[in-house]
């Protein structure tokens, strides 16, 4: 490509050059979190990966540093109530079988999504399978409050553990599909995930400070919406903003994208449930 | 005459080295309306660019270069080409194409997240709106 006239004057602040995440350390209950680390080899175009926490204002960051201030914890408590609540034709609760409580799931979130019996499974799938097949209860809506409260409760059990999602073996074809979606320029604005979160992280887009679009803190509590936001809901919002037809929450496309995006955070600590503006 | 001028359709635009020589609407642009389009609606240029002349407006983006002095760096024809379809000037740029109606992947119905229906696809800016934005850009001179 030719050097355009503006480049000499305006190279500062351009794609990939800005490094505008801050250098604060996330610490919860005296425990420090890894919010910055070398990018895994499969993330070809980044040398360092950062948690979205590093791009937020000090006020928003602080809410995540104390569980009493973290508004997401109310929903985690609701998740605990749901865990113990009997529901469905079999008269069972999660706790009827999982007598050890949600602590049985320590580490699970850090390895999700994963492939089971040839199918790519995300946390919402595990939860609904158990509700429908073993409890005889109604499935929960993907981004519904009860579902995301349970996803957050199970996710919290892995907080502080590094993300380590498998991308090889049976996962490989799903991962490739997710990668393809990540780099496709959708909609009338013709923007891909990478255009915003890889080429322009650290830059402002209107009033928003672009992060690397990591999901190690999901479900996140969004102050603007005053509720827990699912991963697929966030994906949908970002694709909609390109004036595109989005994929559905729970679709094969979004599960593949979730696997790919989760793997981009391998090495960052799980922060679930994170707080965002 | 200007009054009877017919707009060039998005599919008929001729680019020369990324530039478009003549007005797309056949009419001159209105710089004041161009300045308004920089801020809102389907233009929203300051989502990505800062412009000192519009510093009374909050939240200028950093995804594209600052546009101060764009009227010195580029001819009117260049600016028209850049706004109509920046990909003709800058290969693979993230800047959207504002006067283009085909070649999209999963085109949506504006910001609804739903598929675009059977209706004719409208460009992000009309021919006259492109001219208005260009008329504003040529006023962006250094000093
Ligand atoms: C009837 C018994 C039963 C009930 C009720 C039940 N589970 Fe399970 N669950 C199991 C068994 C058995 C396993 C281990 C085998 C497996 O992974 O399917 C398991 C495993 C899991 C796993 C871990 C899967 C993995 O890959 O490590 C999760 C998460 C889970 N259950 C969540 C729930 C939740 C949430 C509920 C309530 C909505 C629930 N379960 C209700 C029996 C039950
Ligand atoms: C037009 C620009 C744009 C595009 C394209 C885009 N995003 Fe985003 N995304 C944003 C903005 C702005 C935010 C809010 C600020 C932030 O966290 O980066 C955001 C936030 C996110 C977050 C939340 C991060 C956090 O820490 O809370 C995730 C995850 C995400 N995006 C993933 C994606 C994926 C996956 C795609 C492609 C399917 C995508 N984005 C496409 C602009 C975009
Ligand atoms: C999503 C981001 C984005 C939006 C929205 C956008 N641009 Fe750009 N623009 C860019 C980028 C990035 C470049 C640098 C070209 C490249 O990619 O090589 C650019 C380049 C330009 C240039 C040439 C740079 C110079 O000043 O020398 C002009 C002029 C321009 N844009 C005008 C506009 C106008 C007018 C609008 C709105 C109608 C607009 N842009 C909307 C991202 C954007």
UniProtKB/TrEMBL annotation, chain A:
Annotated compartments: Periplasm
Span of the signal peptide: 1-20
Superkingdom of origin: Bacteria
Binding sites annotated in the UniProt record for heme c 1: 94, 97-98
Chief location: periplasm
Keywords on record: Electron transport, Heme, Iron, Metal-binding, Periplasm, Signal, Transferase, Transport
InterPro entries from the UniProt entry: Cyt_c-like_dom, Cyt_c-like_dom_sf, SoxA
Reaction equation(s) it catalyzes: S-sulfanyl-L-cysteinyl-[SoxY protein] + thiosulfate + 2 Fe(III)-[cytochrome c] = S-(2-sulfodisulfanyl)-L-cysteinyl-[SoxY protein] + 2 Fe(II)-[cytochrome c] + 2 H(+); L-cysteinyl-[SoxY protein] + thiosulfate + 2 Fe(III)-[cytochrome c] = S-sulfosulfanyl-L-cysteinyl-[SoxY protein] + 2 Fe(II)-[cytochrome c] + 2 H(+)
Catalytic residues in the record: 238 (cysteine persulfide intermediate)
Protein name: SoxAX cytochrome complex subunit A
